[in-house]
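Hello Y.,

Per our agreement to keep a running log of every chain we model this quarter, I'm adding this entry. I've kept the format consistent with earlier entries: sequence first, then predicted structure.
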Amino acid sequence: MTRRKGLVIAMDGPAGVGKSTVGGLVAKSLGYKFINTGEMYRALTWKALERGLDLNDHDGVLGLAKSLSWEFKPVEEGGSTLKTHLDGDVITAQIREERVSVNSSLVAGNPGVRKFLSKLQRELGVEQAREAGGIVMEGRDITTNVFPDADVKIYLDASPEERADRRYRQLKAAGQEADRGAILAAILKRDLNDLKREINPLKQAPDAFVIDSTKLTLRQVADGILRRIRRGAKGEGRAR
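Predicted structure for the entry above:
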């Protein structure tokens, strides 16, 4: 692999565990870039729905993915969070549409699409680590498939009940209606889909630093990761 200037920090974990918040905090503290790779699958799902494609048509969706111009850059100048741009347009609010949420698992389970996007993710990580300060990349298979040679591997976990509570509080704080039971059921279903997915399922890398955040704030989780990274930097210059 091309020699890296900065670190590649890979983070996996189940839905609703706070990877994006933690990853963003860690990246900002280190002066790195951050990307939520799940947004790539959601952006493609939205694009496919807009084109009227059958999401069960694996070849058709893969063909669409390959035909698009993919870019990853901050929305605001100097920002640390990279967003997915398709054919020059940033895809942000669109990926939160309900039709995208309920269909994105079909696209994420497409073997060809997963291979294609994994390649883009690895290229992005190498570029950011070589040309910029480094990158924090989160998803479901970053530590096991996209970057098995990442400098730092994190597996962030929390109980389904705690994840449901966090989401419930988040929605209520935003003034939205929320059903905790429905949220918990959706989390359990998504966990099962991720774990049972035929290609690159969610699992812990054997050398990942596992953090159970059930009784921790996300700021405490981020601070713990930063301490571990900085200890590694003072040692052999490569945190593991």
